[in-house]
Amino acid sequence: MSAAAGPLAGLLVLDFSTLLPGPLATLILAEAGAEVVKVERPGTGDEMRGYQPPWGADSANFALLNRGKRSVALDLKDPAQRARLDPLIERADILVEQFRPGVMERLGLGPGQVMARNPRLIWCSITGYGQSGPKRDAAGHDLNYIGDAGLLSLGFGDAARPVVPPALIADIAGGAYPAVMNILMALHARQATGSGQRLDIAMTDNLFPFLYWAMGQGFATGRWPGNGDGLVTGGTPRYRLYPTADGRVLAAAPIEDRFWAVFCDIIGLEPQWRDDARDPAGTAARVAALVAARDADAWRAAIAGRDCCCSIVATVEEAMNDPHFAARGLFGHRLANAEGQQMPALPVPLAPALRGPPGIRPAPALGADNAAVLAP
């Protein structure tokens, strides 16, 4: 199945978003066969084009997030230029925007204004705090959203040296993924009703599913979890990161008793420490000492083929070269630029049958498709 013949083939997506949440959402739609037209400001375009590191004319980040899309450059504040979008708006199936609430209305492109002309349109807004509520106009980034939702409080490390999470959780799991999920459900509803919908995707709202266990504990017991004291945030010896002798890290997650017993045998934990309910801190300290006595290769060999839910934390480079992911075809799709360079395309959460066979596709140059897709 080629990308053009994917399950979303024939759908037109107008993408007014920038940076990460919206562009990742529309990348997923593009990889499933939709035609995505990226609407950018003249001159600079999407801010992500200028990020580091550069890869050809634009950044590697931009190329990874915008593979297979088309680009038009328009000054949306100019009524004449904005009018060139009219034919696209009238036949579009999906519109994705990421401005603060009210910006699209001021441009004459608000949902009420546009959906009056195209009532079948699925209009998707992605913002930090949503289209309503006291925080709707507040500026923020991922760190603010996960902080406001309480998620960050559960595991930020030593308060004297707090750790910033290594992933943009709100942007991806709170923004891009829910946007795609809701767009697909709205498209399904449109088949029955013939009408589009306005979708209000608030990244902070969508973080609360990550707090299911913390909510359960707090509401059921009145004792709310704190920094690093929960079952899956380091509050037990059975779910921790243990440094090895050579500066690598063992990810140990033998929560269940059957896995814990195997793990204890592998590391040689003495009987007095195996009942971790008696003295959790003491058990954790002894486990840490035993793990720290050997290097990562020794532990990798010791845990190989053993059911203990343990692994050596991989570097990004190691993960990219892992034979398992190669066997899965995860990096089979390719990204190209105008200079002839190639790299693996960004994997997206689509089943292979829905994404189509591997192929080489570029991200668009700024305004490359003005003549082809815009009215004169």
Supply the number of helical segments: 17
Uncertain stretches = none
CATH level 4 superfamily of the largest domain: Crotonobetainyl-coa:carnitine coa-transferase, domain 1
Second-tier CATH architecture of the largest domain: 3-Layer(aba) Sandwich
- Mean pLDDT figure: 97
Produce a short descriptive summary.
This protein has 376 residues and is of the alpha/beta class. It has 17 helices and 14 strands.
What secondary-structure arrangement, pairings included, does this model have?
Blueprint: E1 12-15, H1 21-31, E2 35-40, E3 54-55, E4 58-59, H2 60-65, E5 70-73, H3 79-83, H4 86-91, E6 94-97, H5 103-106, H6 111-115, E7 122-127, H7 142-148, H8 169-193, E8 197-202, H9 212-221, E9 240-243, E10 249-252, H10 257-267, H11 271-274, H12 280-292, H13 296-303, E11 310-312, H14 316-320, H15 323-327, E12 334-336, E13 342-344, H16 352-355, E14 360-362, H17 370-373
Parallel strand pairs: 1-2, 1-6, 2-5, 6-7, 7-8, 12-14
Antiparallel strand pairs: 3-4, 9-10, 10-11, 12-13
